[in-house]
Amino acid sequence: MYPRNIITGFVPVLLLLSLYRCIPPEKIILPGDIKGHVTDTIWDYGIENAYVTLNNTNDTVRAGINGFYIFKNVAPGDYEIEASYYGFHKNKKEITVLPAETHVINFTLNPIYHPVISHRELDFGLDLISIPVSISYNGLEKITYKIKANPNQEWIKIQPSAGELENSDTLVVTISIDRTGLSTDIYQQQINISWYDSYDVFSWDWLNLYVNGVLGSESNIYYKVMKIGTQLWMAENIKDGTDICCDSYQTDNGVIEKYCFDNDCDPYGAYYQWGEIMQYHHPDTGITGITRGICPEGWHVPTTAEWKALIDYLGGENVAGGKLKDIGIIQYGNGLWQAPNTDATNESGFTALPGGWVNGSRDYVGNIASFWTSQPGLIEMYSDSAKVVIKNFDISSDGNSAHSLRCIKDP
Question: Rounded to two decimals, what is the model's pTM?
Answer without folding.
Answer: 0.75
